[in-house]
Write a structure and sequence with these properties.
The complex is a heterodimer of chains A (114) and B (113). With 114 residues, chain A is an all-beta fold. Chain A is built from no helices and 9 strands. The radius of gyration of chain A is 14 Å and the shape is globular. In chain B, the strands form 2 sheets. In chain B, strands 2, 4, 5, 6, 9, 10 and 11 form a 7-stranded mixed sheet that branches. In chain B, strands 1-3-8-7 form a 4-stranded antiparallel sheet, with no helix packed on it. Classes of the chains: A mainly beta (114), B mainly beta (113).
Chain lengths: 114, 113
Amino acid sequence: DAKTTQPNSMESNEEEPVHLPCNHSTISGTDYIHWYRQLPSQGPEYVIHGLTSNVNNRMASLAIAEDRKSSTLILHRATLRDAAVYYCILRANAGGTSYGKLTFGQGTILTVHP
Amino acid sequence: EAQVTQNPRYLITVTGKKLTVTCSQNMNHEYMSWYRQDPGLGLRQIYYSMNVEVTDKGDVPEGYKVSRKEKRNFPLILESPSPNQTSLYFCASSPYSGSGELFFGEGSRLTVL
């Protein structure tokens, strides 16, 4: 199953943009890139996902490299509530041999300073 | 409200006493899975299920069993719990699709003495 690599931790100031990187050099053509975050004492929650094109939603933006071997989660204006662990994972398309297995890794701990 | 419900949320038990952690989802999702989370090790997948009666091992299945007799339920069974299974457990579900968003439960904190 394809793996992702993320920095252990990052810091940001409140109301500044944050760019969280993720490397996935072994991504296959049908793998979706998903991002989740886990707030303290909670289960992970969905943030955004994409396949090839950049994506935007109310929480964040996802920028995907042209070769798809890396991606960046962008929080446009960090708030104190964005302090969490952010996970980047790859999810094969349904029917793919690695569809069911998911590897989360340790994620990136984001600290937001007031 | 769309949700994944786990029970119990907290449990302290003793070595060898069989226990079941239940997981139920109300979104008609085909895919369900279990994870354990330990300090410094992140989230590790225990078992997953593509649909009713279809289950498969994740990365750390030893010491656990699962069943999927109904679409909405995916219980995690510890036949003979040991202290190394003390952990925080999460259940998740999603539609059967690579683009399907995973919905997680609130977690079950298990302590085995």
